[in-house]
Amino acid sequence: MIRVTDLSVNYGAVRALREVSFEAPTGEITAVLGANGAGKTTLLRTISGLVAPKTGEVALDETRLTGVATENIARLGLAHVPEGRGVIAELTVEENLRLGAMAAKVDLAAGLANQYERFPALRDRRRKLCATLSGGERQMLAMARALIAQPRVLLLDEPSLGLAPQITAQLMHTIRDLCASEHLTVILVEQNAKSALRIAHRAVVLHLGRAVASGSAQDIAQDDDLRRYYLGVAVE
């Protein structure tokens, strides 16, 4: 599992995270929710080693990740799919996938076959430049590029951003199936709280850098005050 303990992060005088603590168990999806500026992206960047915390620590099982170089965290089995997808538009689909496999000791041919089976649309477009892909296809590719390295932990930052509702629903279904089939630890940052809570096992709600609530996704979804004041979800 991923264990976050009393994590605080500053950007100069700005406190982005304030003593955040939670656990993300293996084989489960933990949704991290909150408004813009809540600290969600900073949290993922700190877990993956891109941002150094002021205090606190992150651990993968019994291995402390705080202070470990980003590339070494990746080698321990953590994959980070950032907001904006991050695929290289000038390369083909397959070239992007090959980049994802470079740092991992995996069978490239088998890895490509697995990802094409998982995402048939990518197989059909494997020779196409990523600049020609739709937003949904780019998100599939970003996830496939992370998964080809066979990670233990998958960090997803706003995967539904800019996608149509139907594509978002398909993507969430894919994330849920991936977690179950690969027994991954998934930490899912989402502004679309309704979609995230439908597939998550647990949830953490951030507000101005603090964790104002954590617990089962079902309990968070049923809390009218959290939905109204922190998640922007209408109370029916």
Give, in spatial order, the strands making up the sheet with the most strands: 6-7-8-3-9-10
**Uncertain stretches of 5 or more adjacent residues:** none
N-to-C span: 35 Å
Mean pLDDT value: 91
Radius of gyration: 17 Å
Textual characterization of the structure:
- The structure is a single chain.
- The protein has 236 residues and is of the alpha/beta class.
- 38% of the residues lie in helices and 26% in strands.
- Strands 6-7-8-3-9-10 form a 6-stranded mixed β-sheet, sandwiched between helices. A 4-stranded antiparallel β-sheet has the order 2-1-4-5, covered by helices on one side.
- Helix 3 (93-102) runs parallel beside helix 6.
- The longest helix is centred in the C-terminal third of the chain and has 18 residues, at 165-182.
- The protein is globular and about 45 Å long.
- It starts with a strand and ends in a 7-residue tail after the last helix.
- The model has no long low-confidence stretch (mean pLDDT 91).
Describe the structure concisely.
This protein has 236 residues and is an alpha/beta fold. The protein contains ten helices and ten strands.
